[in-house]
Amino acid sequence: QKEVEQNSGPLSVPEGAIASLNCTYSDRGSQSFFWYRQYSGKSPELIMFIYSNGDKEDGRFTAQLNKASQYVSLLIRDSQPSDSATYLCAVNPTGTASKLTFGTGTRLQVTL
Amino acid sequence: DVKVTQSSRYLVKRTGEKVFLECVQDMDHENMFWYRQDPGLGLRLIYFSYDVKMKEKGDIPEGYSVSREKKERFSLILESASTNQTSMYLCASSSPNSLGQFFGPGTRLTVL
After folding, report:
1. Which of A2, A21, A89, B13 is deepest in the core (most CB within 10 A)?
2. Contact B106/A46, CB-based, under 8 Å?
């Protein structure tokens, strides 16, 4: 079982719709969770982090964390073509200080 | 803003050459990381460092070494480059508060 799992996609959503990206993790003791956006040929860019169960909103982005289900998601409201990218979920596993384990990413396509 | 820079965006080397990849961060971060990213395999940790002159192996250290002589600089060394080391190499840094890792622009290395 992979430590951090994401559907590779592509996830295709029309412009203006809500995109929902999902991630599951295996280490129940994980405390910190991150979402990165990576455009083709570019490096990952941190867009959200969440530590507590529930929702965290930042502009059009909402991160949701459910530690009991070992599930973290990213919602993008009013999706724009510029949101088309690969989204990486990253988890800080138990006892690993600042190390992160990354999923392989979900490719999002926002269509006109 | 955190700034992480890498010495080259693109690099072409021959098999057997010694290759140096340099990374510099300007946010006084204690932690620095080297990853490689390959299609379908995601981000894989090569080496990381929590302090000057300190290094720890990541998941795929074979064929690589690192050097951290100053806090802001973390170098990745390929002692004898091989074709299977052709990849995108990404450097990242973070603080002990673990508010995510910040990535440099990446170096796309081709070994012929």
Report:
1. A89
2. no
